[in-house]
Design a protein that fits this description.
The protein is of the alpha/beta class. The chain contains 20 helices and eight strands. It folds into three domains: 137 residues, 2-Layer Sandwich (Nucleotidyltransferase, domain 5); 137 residues; 137 residues, no CATH class. The N and C termini lie far apart (79 Å).
Length: 430
Amino acid sequence: MAVTSQDSRLDREDVNALSVFCGIDWASDHHDVVIVDDTGSLRAKARIDDTAEGLAELLRLLADHGDTAEDPVPVAIETSRGLLVACIRATGRPVYAINPMAAARYRDRHAVSRKKSDHLDALVLANILRTDAAAHRKLPADSELAQAIAVLARAQQDAVWDRTQAANKLTSHLREYFPGFLAAVGIRREGVCHPIARTLLAAAPTPEQAAGLTRAQLRSLLKKAGRKNTIDAEADRLHTALRLPQMRQLPLVEQAMGHETLALLRQLEAACTSADDLAEAAVESFEKHPDAEIITSFPGLGSLSGARVFAEIGDDRSRFTDARGLKAYAGSAPITRASGKSVAVLARRVKNQRLAAVGYVWAFAAMAHSDGARAHYDRRREAGDRHTAAQRNLFNRMIGCLHHCLTHRIPYSETAAFPTSAGSQLSEAA
């Protein structure tokens, strides 16, 4: 790994007198490192491998240019994930994850010809910190437990999305040759994801096989799927439903489509198992954190949904100095675009998509468990908001309350969150 230093003529005292900034252009197998001082002069550059030796070389390079535990050198990189970022964060150095689109706009300041190289990209990142560090947010100093919860909660959310995709593929495929099965199990909210539906489909993936199932076989399959009540009645219903007349594919085509169904079913089974296992692990880890009690005190938030919320906000309370920053991060606060006499208030598109997704579910569930939340939603609807806008406004209110409760270490209070609604209820009771 080649290292080139530009300050060989400077002694140690001169190095410590200057502020330096580090930029790293990340790649899958190597990383380009650049260090600049507060005048923008290049002090050092290097290309390190994505190995432990490369990390050690990076730390030595930073130490040679004034990096200390009391005054660490800030590092800019275009990703917030990966082993390199995790190891740098573990050393206590501030790491800024620069959005690649923002970095691309800064690049034009250094090369109007729009040339691009790994060294130039690292130089651009270092100069972003030198000139505009205040405009970018460094990665939060979350605890080890908080980072583990984030990994599990995000993985579980990904598994749920994979499960939904697999279920949609299987459902679409069944419509092409076995609509009677969907009609038979469609009364359940989970559809083909329900254990009974998956067990039946594994035993009889074609209409001919399904019609040949006896009541005794159906009862056995229901027990295998975990059914404990009204087994005989459900077996009779399925026995009738699976024998109703329906359009059919040609016999050989139907058999081939049955084989494809089994392949899609295996994918769905794996996605369901992954989602369930990760949910259990995420809840177990989340409930060990002291913030869990406060988060789950909110209406509409259980252990799993609370873990998803916590995964995105972490436990570094200095990350969001006020509720406005958290609301913008969650995408619940609107964005105003004004030019002259034209003013437009729009929904925020650039946001944390995971937090926004769980926020929609949170607001929906809160309306069923909180009279104040329901009254707030109804007021927004009466004011002319559509359903999505009113629900987003409710999420905005709840996320602001969450920031207050976490900052002051207090549980949720209905009377504090919705004082107008609580006061009206007391008046009616009197």
